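Worked problem 6 (solution included).
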Amino acid sequence: MAARPVRLVDAVIAGLPPLPKAAASPAQPVYAAQPLINPIDQARRPEILAPRPTAPRAAPAVAVDGLPGRRLPISMAVPGGPSPGKAAGVKVLKSKWRLARRWAFRSTAIVMVLVIASGGLIVSQGWLKARKVFKGGTTSAAALQQDVNPSLLKGEGDGRINILLLGRGGGNHDAPDLTDTIMLASIDPVNHTATLLSIPRDMWVSVQGAGSMKINAAWETGKYKFLGKITNDNSNPQATLAGFTTVDQAVESVIGVPIHYNVLVDFDAFKQSIDTVGGVTVNVPEDLVDPTMAWENGRNPVLAKAGTQTFDGTHALMYSRSRETSSDFARGQRQRAVLLALKDKVATLGTLSSPTKLASLANAFGSNVQTDLAINDAARLANIVKDVNNTNVNSIGLADAPNSFVTTANVNGQSVVQPKAGPTNFSLIQNFVRGQLKDPYLSKEQGKIQVYNGTTVPGLAGAQADILTSYGYTITGTGNAPTKGYSQTIIVDLTAGAKKYTKNYLQQRYGVTAVTTLPDPTIVPNGADFVIIVGNDTSATR
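Solution. The predicted structure is:
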């Protein structure tokens, strides 16, 4: 009998003992079908994932961590596709229904922190239930403080509050821990704006200690590695945090900005939250037709007509997860639209003044949401978010014209998303994201900076100016210093400390303490607030 394929956790957890096998349940059917190989496993361990014979096999279904009959490896096939090796007729219909249902549970969910924090869950009847959600950690984002001390900000971008929003299928379904929705909610607490950024679930990334994979597998990889096994149970908070740490590292390597908090939501929380507020109203730009999802829409392939539509939880989920007839990028746009509509609905007087609805929302979140936000941080975030109008929320993606930075590619037979600049070159993506998510304190101070090259390396001042511009600094000019040979970069603060945040960020970036007088009286600042003389300790790429 051919060997059973190695599961995802076996491919990423080196040295861990294999899971024990369990006897198959008599009621569990065993299919003599060609296996549906998990593309992540196939990419990681191709030598042990050779196709098995298509002849009938007697191998039982595998029980994993008390989940009887879970069939491995995980299928990542698209709903509506063929069911290899199955007979025609009723078996084919049932197989397609199971596959589509599995896809529905896996492709969930965009209700996240903007809704949780939009007022109400920390008050009245929802407070005690909210404590189940906001278990939190030991640290808080510095930007949650009012008049934050500049020394607490770790670098450009730390003045924002960045929350990674993750949507998973959950429950006892195949691949419940793949985060097929990955979105960054970045909040500017100073200027009362926010940005939603969709990250393609198929982005090919390197995960620390686990190799390369699609980014939607990063959270489960961290969780399974911590536990040493595959399990649908998310009751271990340390395992959840391990998953957050892993996915944060992967996302930060792509977009180049820090992640402060995470919120993980499943299918049930999404639907229940929509229904609790009485549905959401979305402006649908064009008809959304998806025959692969007609089975759950009364056999109607038209999931949404163009124009203003009000969705209940079920239809909002269909609208948010459909991609078979559009694309994953278009799906990201729809998810952001639904999230904004839900935030707007939660913020209405009728929702916030209804203890019943608040308690119902808290119930949904308490059972189906994991986050590293503490309850006090959530309360502070609620006060910030309530001042962010939807007109001040920017919605962007990495494939939205004219700023399209990614493309599809093929890696070991599976479809992935990679930067157009090269498979591992995220520099253009990071420059774009930093430009969209400028540090609010830099934006507020608008400190004018002159950059001079104090070395013999040609073009160093211009290179530094480009890097600083990508972080949101205001560069008013560049040039060569009158003399060369500066061994160390010099920062001259000509504001007498008035622009303390800009000063702090520059000091952190170059690792020096700013001075108040120019080292060379022949240097003309031309009205600049800061003069930077780049020394030999700074490279063109730093």
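Discussion: The chain is about 30% helix and 20% strand.
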